[in-house]
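INFO batch 0412 | record 1 of 1 | parsing
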Amino acid sequence: MNSPSEPSASEALRKSLEKSPFASVTPGATPSARDIWGALGGPRGLVESLLPGLSFLVVYSLTQSLWWSVGVPVAVSVAFIATRLIQRSPIQPALVGFAGIAASAAVAILSGRPENNFVLGLWVNGISLAALVVSLLVGRPLIGVIAGVLTSDGRWREDRAKRVMATVATLLWVAMFGLRLVVQVPLYLAGAEAVQALATARLLMGVPLYGATLWLTWLLLRSVYRGQAQPSTDRI
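INFO prediction complete | emitting tokens
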């Protein structure tokens, strides 16, 4: 049992979700282009998300060198960290990006296969897809759970409209992760010959597809949370 000074599991979950892009727009509010821009991290967030992958594609296309192709993105992510330190801005986003890029580079170098620079990303997409599907199978669509936590709406599953819309929104994310895997896994299995195509697909199906999915999710939730009265304090 938690002591009065210790946050409950639901409170800890809410604090975590409030830092996520989902909380950039409260369910029920009208999303704007500025909201999407902010959820993607603004100009800096977009550059930090896109430049490492773009640098891999450009360097590999020019040199066909595994070491240079994975080394340049690592150097770029280190530069992002240094820039944030100099400007005394939060470095956590850059550190998270560096960890993923460095781990992917290590896998590619240790295996000697440039396509393995993308294998961790494929696993992340696969695990995310599995979690979403499981949430649907157990009757707790993950997007509905997130919206319920953010709005303190513990009874959202008793509202048919909210339950249906949560299911539709969760299926939307299933489609996004599934589409990434359907396109990228065959390219990965094709080996070194398809590395440039895989890198291009990763870029196009990364931030742009993520932003569009997030936007549609906000619109779907708005349709059932708009005009909601005071949020419930019941447990999810």
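INFO post-check: The chain is about 70% helix and 0% strand.
INFO record closed
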